[in-house]
Design a protein that fits this description.
By secondary structure, the chain is mostly helical. It has 6 helices and no strands. The longest helix has 23 residues. It starts with a helix and ends with a helix.
Length: 151
C-alpha cells in the first residue's frame, strides 16, 4: 500500500511540474536564452584560433541594425534615449529569436551579448539624460567590441 501512495505522489508531483502557467513567448525565449549562459560576465571573449568567430547570417542584420540605431542617435544629436532603448530591445529580441548557433561560437557570442543586454536595460531604466548619453557611448563601444571578435 505504501508503494502505491509513494507512486501516486510521484506522479502528482511530475504532473504539477508540467502544468505551470505560460509566459509570453518573447519573454520566455529571452529568459531561456539568458539561462543557458556559462558565467560569461567573468570571462573574456576568445578568438577562434586568432580569427573572428562566424555569426550566422540570419542573426547579423539585428546586430547591424542595433549598431546603426546607436550611431545615428549619436551623429544626429538625438535625445530620446527611451525610444532608442526600446528599439534596441526589439533588435535584441529578434537577434535572440533568430539564434541557431551552437558550440564554442555560440558560447563566445553570449560573452558579448549578456553584458550588451545589461547596458540596454540600464539605458531603459535611466532617468538622467547626461548619464543616458554615457550609456549610449557604452553601447557604441559594445558594438565595436562585437566587431573585434565576430564576423
Amino acid at each position: 500500500m505504501k508503494k502505491v501512495i509513494v507512486f501516486g505522489m510521484g506522479i502528482l508531483l511530475l504532473w504539477s511540474c508540467n502544468n505551470s502557467t505560460e509566459k509570453s513567448t518573447t519573454h520566455q525565449e529571452t529568459e531561456n536564452h539568458a539561462e543557458h549562459h556559462h558565467d560569461e560576465n567573468s570571462e573574456a571573449i576568445e578568438l577562434n584560433n586568432g580569427e573572428k568567430w562566424l555569426v550566422n547570417e540570419e542573426m547579423k542584420p539585428f546586430v547591424l541594425k542595433g549598431e546603426e540605431l546607436v550611431n545615428t542617435y549619436i551623429q544626429d544629436g538625438k535625445t530620446d534615449y527611451k525610444t532608442l532603448a526600446e528599439q534596441l530591445k526589439d533588435q535584441n529580441s529578434q537577434l535572440i529569436k533568430s539564434c541557431t548557433m551552437d558550440g564554442k561560437s555560440h558560447d563566445e557570442l553570449h560573452k558579448w551579448l549578456h553584458p550588451h543586454l545589461d547596458i540596454v536595460k540600464t539605458l531603459e531604466n535611466e532617468t538622467d539624460a547626461i548619464k543616458a548619453n554615457e550609456i549610449v557611448s557604452q553601447l557604441q563601444y559594445s558594438y565595436q567590441h562585437y566587431h573585434q571578435y565576430f564576423n
